Amino acid sequence: MAAGTTVDHLTETYRAHYRSLLGLAALLLDDTASCEDVVQEAFIRVHSARNRVRDPEKTLAYLRQTVVNLSRSALRRRILGLKLLSKPMPDMASAEEGAYDQLERDALIKAMRGLQRRQREVLVLRYFADMTEVQVAETLGISLGSVKAYGSRGIAALRVVMEAQA
């Protein structure tokens, strides 16, 4: 059995996955500063518990779960509606294309705000964090069937809202 996640492994994980974890937090929270705080706090907690994370391959999963849990806590404390920030893609081909993409992202984010919390969490983890249904179930602490149900209902609700906007 390994002695736990090493500081060097955690440093490499930070370098490789900080931005993706920040993106995950951005889909769950309403401002950049809160997203950065949540991701930093997640790394601090994993660092403090690194001897308990025996398998270095599970470090990223533990970080994702911690980001989701800290995001929930931040939303609970504020009791505010979700206001997601989106950032323009750095490699946009043209201003027109960028503006169109921005409108589509804004519409999707607005539609995501209208979902139930659990539906939004499942869709964010499944499609934006690119996790499998099993990983989503483990991260959220729910059954695989619940992940499928929340995901299906969330997509159906998004489809209705997005088609109405088109």
From TrEMBL:
This protein's UniProt keywords: DNA-binding, Sigma factor, Transcription, Transcription regulation
Protein name, entry field: RNA polymerase sigma-70 factor, sigma-E family
Record-annotated RNA polymerase sigma factor 70 region 4 type domain positions: 106-158
Family, as annotated: Belongs to the sigma-70 factor family. ECF subfamily.
Signal peptide from the UniProt entry: none
Single GO term (MF): DNA binding
One Pfam family cited in the UniProt record for this chain: Sigma70_r2
InterPro entries for this protein: RNA_pol_sigma-70-like, RNA_pol_sigma-70_dom, RNA_pol_sigma-E_actinobac, RNA_pol_sigma70_r2, RNA_pol_sigma70_r4_t2, RNA_pol_sigma_r2, RNA_pol_sigma_r3/r4-like, WH-like_DNA-bd_sf
Any one Gene Ontology BP term: DNA-templated transcription initiation
Organism: Streptomyces atratus
Domain called RNA polymerase sigma-70 region: residue spans: 14-78
